[in-house]
Amino acid sequence: MSSSLQSLLEQKLALEKQIAEAQRQERAEAIAKIKTLMSDYGLTPSDLTARAPAATRKGGSGKVAVKYRNPATGDTWTGRGLQPKWLRAALAEGRKITDFTV
Known about the structure:
This protein is mainly α. The chain folds into two domains: 3-49; 55-102, H-NS DNA Binding Protein (Irregular). 51% of the residues lie in helices and 4% in strands. The mean pLDDT is 89.
């Protein structure tokens, strides 16, 4: 091995040791900071793992209430989208949509 390669490998080893030490130091500082914040706010480790309440959706497309029901079969329709076949057939026979209102 040439002396320049050996020198570079020694420098690499020294840098890796410096990196490991810097990581240990920063980790220790982060832990100390977290402990201080937990103490300041009265938090416990279980507070960190507890699930936050689910956010409520605003204007989202959630479930829609049923508006129409076929009394013979129990099939339902929310009034959104295309009319189901059972309702179209009943309307074609002369029944009114209000006959199926829930």
